[in-house]
Structure formats: C-alpha cells, structure tokens
RNA sequence: GGUCCGUUCGUCUAGUCAGGUCAGGACGCCAGGUUUUCAUCCUGGUAACAGGGGUUCGAAUCCCCUACGGACUACCA
C-alpha cells in the first residue's frame, strides 16, 4: 500500500437530505478509518451550483453527529488539507485541468448542449451501439482537436463557452482491482471523453474527486457501486496527472434496494412505502413538506446504525448486536457483500427493541417525562422508574410508553366491553367487595403478599381464578392487558387500587 | 440499445477465495410453553443454493451458457 496512514473520506453533495444509503457509506468509511487508526474526512462536493440545497450541509453534519460518527477532519471540523468544500477549491482544479491540456490529455470542447444532443440522436438513429463523445466521434465535433489552433484561440479570446474534456486513448484496456468486487477490465473504446471542467467554471465530480483524493492523501475510496463504471476514467486521471503510484484502493459497496420490487432505494420511496429513508427529519424549504427521519420516528442512533451496518456487511459470525467499538474491531472491507440489499422495517424495529431493553432507565425516564409534561400529567405521587421498568420489555420505541402506562396516571373511565361480557358475572361485585376488605386489612402492600392473599381467598371460596383476576384487572386498568396486576397495584398504592376497584363495582354494568 | 456488475430461506445473511457434515444464524410467519390477561420471553417448526450444461469420486463453492435483477450510459453527483 502506497499510503502510510489510512485516510478515507465521505464526500456527499449537498443536494438535499442525506439518505440512508449515504449514511451507510459514511458508516463504512468511519468504521474502516477507526479500525486502522486512520482519519475520517468529510468533504462536501458542491460543484453543481444548480442542485445546491441550502441547509443540506448542516443536515449532513447533524446526521453524523447523531450517529456519533463525526469526522476527524473536514467541513465543520477543519484540518490541514483544506478547504474541504469543493466550491472553495476552484483554482486548484483549474490548474490541473490546464495541466492536462498542455500535456495532451485533455482538450477544449465548444459544443452546445443541442449540438451534443444532435450527435447522440444521429448516432442512435444510425444504430450505433455507442453514442458517446469519444475517440471516434470527437473528430466531428467542435473542439481543440478538430479545430485549428487559431480558431480555438479565437473562440477562447471571444469568451465562447467551453468545457474541458478528458482525451481517452483509442484502444486501451484499463484495469483495476476493487477490494469488494474484484478485478475489472474496461476498454477505452467503450468509455467517453468525460467532461472534467464545466462551462460555468466548476469542475465535474470526476476531476474534483481525483484531485482532492490525491491532495488529501486519501488511501481508500469507499463509495457506492454506482461509481464503478466511472472508475476507469478516474484511473486514467491519476495516470495522466502523474499520480499512478498513489492510486487509492477502491472499494465499491453494493446499493440499498427498495424493500418492494427492485431498484435503487430513492428518496421518494419513503413517502410511497411509509417508512423513513432519512436519518433525521427534513423540512423542504420549497414545499415546507416534512420528510420523516429515523430519529424522530423513535429509533435510537445505536440501533439504527447497527441495523444499517448489517446491510451489505457481515462479520461472518452469528453476532448481531454490536457496540460501535465492537463494529470498529470487527469491520473489514473483505466482508462487504457484493449484491444489493433491501431493507426490512421489521428487523429495524427488532433492533430498536433490543437496544431499548439495554438503555439506562434514567434515559428512558428523561424522554418519558417530556411526554408527561406535554400531556399535563401530574406524576409526583408515582415512581416513574419502576413503572418504566415494568413495561419496557413491551416497548419497541420510547413513544410506546404512554400507550403502555397511561392507566397509571389516569384511572379508567371506561371498561373494555369484551372483557365485561366474558368475565363480569352476577357475583363479581360481591367478590371484588370481599377483595377490598381483604386488601384493606393488608399492611405489607407488596406484590407477593397481595398475590398470596388473593389467591388464597380464591381457593378457599372456590372461585374461578381467571374470572376474578380478569375482573380485578378490568377495574384497575380498564382492559385485559398489561403486566402483572399485583405489580400494578403496588405502584398505584393501596388507596388508589381500592378506590379503582370500588369505582369498577359502582360503574361496570353487564 | 451498449458497457459493467450481481443472483443462498419472504427479508438480512454464514458458507464460495483454499470443492467433501441433514446448507448454519437472525427478522418475519406458524405451533407449543410461561404469564390463569395482553405483550415480552423460552422451545420447536416453516422456508433457499435462479436454470441448464460441464470439470470432479464428490459442486452452493471451479468453468461455460441462459434467465432474471441492478448500476452506468448528463456541462448530476
């Protein structure tokens, strides 16, 4: 490896919110950097002025922060290889573009968009399999290869718009090795003379990314596999710029696919299928429409990251739950799969459930308290921690807690009619009245004691256990579900429990 | 259309590079158990090597063909 230090970059373009495919790319880069004690760099590829979306850069930064995979270097952090925003590096690209021209590896092209379209249409109608601007077609186009030197100079002096194109060799094989996909061979005849420099004075991705990766001493390029087809162009650039000995290792990772059907996951799939495709909420400034994020949907960043990293990567063991440190230790490019993966919301939920079970109760309490305040609930008499401990195993999201615990805070005002129908008998009021008497006399109001004494009563009176306990639960909770009724009663207090039973007796009518 | 890539349970995947256990795990689903409730949890079950040819004593694994899927094919990244 020509690099002493591992340096990888995550290089999104600020054209909107980062979607989960991009997030996964960031995670893989981060993990790889940390595994090798390297640097994780954030570079913003904002060379397309037309697609610039304000707020997108901040969104990217916030997303990485939420996931706890913040860059060591780059936009928002600084570093000695800056600037890290490509729009601030225009001069650098210009210099290299002109170097390529003077070395005979690039040329000026003056064709207008409509002329280019005409060419493609013509080739298409003539049934050429290839409609690219390449060694065959460029001689017929308006460029510094086909035009006389004087004519070219005249156009330049005249400030005619131009682009700079890479001049591909006519019949060469371009080979490279991909750390994920293996060996590639491309034929230059199948490639096109890519635009390196646009007429607006900005470089294209191809030039900017190669120049920056070199100047920033990037050792490994880990990116989505939509880039494999343009990699030969990048290889050529390294070669023509004299950097062939320092070409980074390429690792193209498989794409994230739509959960239904086929195809690359897109930003619109979220709305269509009703699941988030973004890490954080995103509010479009144009339409004011809000796209849901995983964070706001109740996912913890650890669970989300854990779920995402297992899409296309697997350590080869049965382990599924990983801390960030464990991920760093076990990550390797060799274990990245070759084929795309659809993602499964059920599995994402399962991960969140797993993580929720392990969270410190203080964190859960903190979030839950916000809900209680929003709802204007007085909870000073209740032990919130114990309530949460009691119900947490039933929750997938912290947002489930209110649904799971509301009866602790608000005594039932209505009762599940199905349970009434099934369990509330003629003698139920009498039985519950007896239970009130028993409970009133109970000094040590603890779960075990309550359970023992009630079951004893049921046995000696020859009562139906299911019927008694269900109707008891009905008076206290209002429905037939929830954790152990004895635990609930303890948390509610003796007085409250008795009051609820009495209310039930008074109000439940068969 | 062209170029490149991919294909193991419904889904995420292990196993493929170095060919040799009933193809292993997880999610989901189904059943049973626990909870005399519901959920969780536990146990069990369901279910896959895309198809066809080779090579070999032996193929998920190596080779070829086919099918299917995807990416790219912009003065977007």
Q: Give the mean pLDDT.
A: 93
List the total number of helices: 20
CATH class assignment of the largest domain: Alpha Beta
- Counting DSSP E segments of at least 2 residues, the number of strands comes to 14
CATH architecture of the largest domain: 3-Layer(aba) Sandwich
Q: Main beta sheet: strand number and arrangement?
A: 3 strands, parallel
Provide a descriptive summary of the structure in words.
The chain has 510 residues and is mainly α. The protein contains 20 helices and 14 strands. It is elongated. The longest helix has 16 residues. 43% of the residues lie in helices and 10% in strands. The structure holds one RNA strand of 77 nucleotides.
What's the helix and strand layout?
Elements: E1 7-10, H1 20-35, E2 39-42, H2 56-66, E3 73-74, H3 90-102, E4 106-109, H4 113-125, H5 149-157, E5 163-166, E6 173-178, E7 182-187, E8 195-197, H6 205-215, E9 220-224, H7 231-240, E10 249-253, E11 256-257, H8 269-273, E12 282-283, E13 290-291, H9 301-309, H10 324-330, E14 341-342, H11 345-358, H12 361-374, H13 384-391, H14 401-409, H15 417-423, H16 428-440, H17 447-460, H18 465-477, H19 485-492, H20 494-507
Helix pairs in contact: 1-10, 6-7, 9-11, 12-13, 15-18, 16-20, 17-19, 18-20
This protein binds one RNA strand of 77 nucleotides through helix 4, strand 7, helix 6, strand 14 and helix 11.
